[in-house]
């Protein structure tokens, strides 16, 4: 009602007065803007107590305000929250538990506080280890907001202020749906382009970095054999491989704990963030001991004030336990299936729906107009119409034409059925 609207308008004005406009909100207009009062499980509640189904928060991995995570954080905060340079049992226990989920070569953890820091650390380690300074990344890729991460994030180069640096080489994202290579050997062909850059810059490339399913680049599933082939080219030429699992890790894909496993490869460095501690600031990289030890070549020790603090480790432990105890990977598989089947039906009925894809609870719907152009306006219109039904999804991809879903892992089949019903009626009104 009017009172609520004016409260939101006033908050928006105060926000504009003290914060930068570059700090954008999901929904632009004051009429639509969401004021989140509290959140629980897969739901968020606004100031009037209206309940919204959250299908995009992959940070609240084991559910918003998960009571077990909250209890673990609270207990550790009440006990000690000092400095990561004292011996601390919780962070050691966490490292041991985390590494149980990795292939045995990946046996060392370095802690930090955000996905961006993890990217920075991974790139620097690759340089310390190889003595080389150039990197390869993919079109549409995003790996974080610090300078070194922006350097390998073409997704953020649009404005012109962040330019492609001379030490970074971009190869095409292996999009086998809309990209230049399709069919069975698309993976090999895209991988050959990585090899060409490695050969052209012989002895100069330290690392190849990519997400294990491309999120910002448009929910792109890597074609079969792609990473295997890329990693082979990299290894033959002394290039390290970095898998960014910040969005797709921790069982989101259901059948596996890490999305790189879908491609049957073992990266040299894996970056972890967002869901790792269910929203408590924490991130990490997992790598091989000899690569981690190359840190000493920087001439200094690795120290990070907050990285690896006991509270973060306690939160991380609670997350790992909750994934197992509540069988969240199994749930991701089952509910993901319901979504995908429903999306398939939607595609049969709607010309606009060009492709539906995903694994587990990492899903995308690609919208293309009858003239073959990406349907950006329609994508936003679906997103906004769903908000009227109190369902929250996002739009992503370089052309902003992909509907993206990556909900808390506790979302249910009933939630999925509800969403599919509303999605169908929203698409009907678009026709
Ligand atoms: N990598 C990927 C794939 C991401 O999506 C993000 C964040 N959106 C980052 C890295 C950076 O993480 P953070 O925002 O925690 O620094």
TrEMBL record:
Entry-linked CDD domains: OAT_like
Keywords of the record: Pyridoxal phosphate
Gene3D superfamilies: Aspartate Aminotransferase, domain 1, Type I PLP-dependent aspartate aminotransferase-like (Major domain)
The keyword GTP-binding is annotated on this UniProt entry: no
Cofactor(s) listed in the protein's UniProt record: pyridoxal 5'-phosphate
Domain of life: Eukaryota
Family matches, as InterPro entries: Aminotrans_3, PyrdxlP-dep_Trfase, PyrdxlP-dep_Trfase_major, PyrdxlP-dep_Trfase_small
A GO MF term: transaminase activity
One GO term describing the cellular component: mitochondrion
Entries under SUPFAM superfamilies matching the protein: PLP-dependent transferases (SSF53383)
PANTHER family from the UniProt entry: ALANINE--GLYOXYLATE AMINOTRANSFERASE 2-LIKE, PTHR45688
Family indicated by similarity: Belongs to the class-III pyridoxal-phosphate-dependent aminotransferase family.
Name of the molecule in the record: Uncharacterized protein
Organism, as annotated: Oikopleura dioica (Tunicate)
């Amino acid at each position: 009602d009017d009172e609520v609207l004016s409260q939101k308008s006033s908050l928006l004005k105060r926000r504009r007065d003290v914060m930068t406009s570059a700090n954008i909100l999901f929904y632009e207009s004051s009429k639509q803007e969401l004021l989140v009062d509290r959140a629980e499980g897969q739901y968020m509640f606004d100031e009037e107590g209206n309940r919204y189904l959250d299908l995009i928060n992959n940070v609240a991995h084991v559910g918003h305000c998960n009571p077990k995570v909250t209890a673990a954080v609270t207990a550790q905060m009440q006990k000690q929250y000092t400095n990561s340079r004292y011996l601390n049992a919780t962070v050691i226990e966490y490292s041991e538990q985390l590494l149980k989920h990795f292939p045995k070569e990946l046996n060392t953890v370095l802690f930090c506080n955000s996905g961006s820091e993890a990217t920075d650390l991974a790139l620097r380690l690759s340089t310390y280890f190889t003595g080389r300074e150039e990197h390869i990344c993919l079109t549409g890729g995003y790996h974080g907001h610090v300078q070194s991460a922006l350097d390998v994030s073409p997704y953020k180069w649009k404005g012109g202020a962040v330019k492609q640096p001379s030490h970074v080489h971009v190869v095409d994202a292996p999009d086998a749906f809309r990209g230049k290579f399709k069919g069975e050997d698309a993976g090999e062909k895209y991988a050959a382009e990585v090899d060409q850059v490695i050969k052209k810059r012989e002895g100069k490339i330290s690392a190849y970095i990519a997400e294990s399913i491309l999120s910002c680049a448009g929910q792109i599933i890597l074609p079969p054999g792609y990473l295997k082939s890329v990693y082979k080219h990299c290894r033959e030429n002394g290039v390290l491989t970095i898998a960014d699992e910040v969005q797709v890790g921790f069982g989101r894909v259901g059948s596996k704990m890490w999305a790189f496993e879908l491609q049957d490869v073992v990266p040299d460095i894996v970056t972890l963030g967002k869901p790792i501690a269910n929203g408590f600031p924490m991130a990490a990289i997992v790598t091989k001991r000899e690569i981690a030890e190359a840190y000493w070549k920087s001439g200094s020790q690795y120290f990070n004030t907050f990285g690896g603090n006991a509270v973060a480790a306690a939160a991380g432990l609670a997350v790992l336990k909750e994934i197992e105890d509540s069988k969240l990977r199994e749930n991701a598989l089952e509910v993901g299936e319901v979504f995908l089947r429903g999306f398939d039906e939607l595609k049969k009925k709607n010309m606009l729906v060009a492709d539906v894809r995903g694994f587990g609870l990492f899903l995308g719907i690609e919208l293309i107009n009858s003239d073959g152009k990406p349907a950006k306006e329609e994508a936003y219109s679906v997103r906004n119409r769903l908000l009227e039904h109190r369902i929250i999804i996002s739009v992503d991809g370089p052309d902003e034409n992909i509907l993206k879903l990556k909900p808390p892992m506790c979302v249910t089949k009933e939630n999925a059925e509800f969403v599919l019903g509303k999605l169908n009626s929203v698409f009907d009104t678009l026709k």
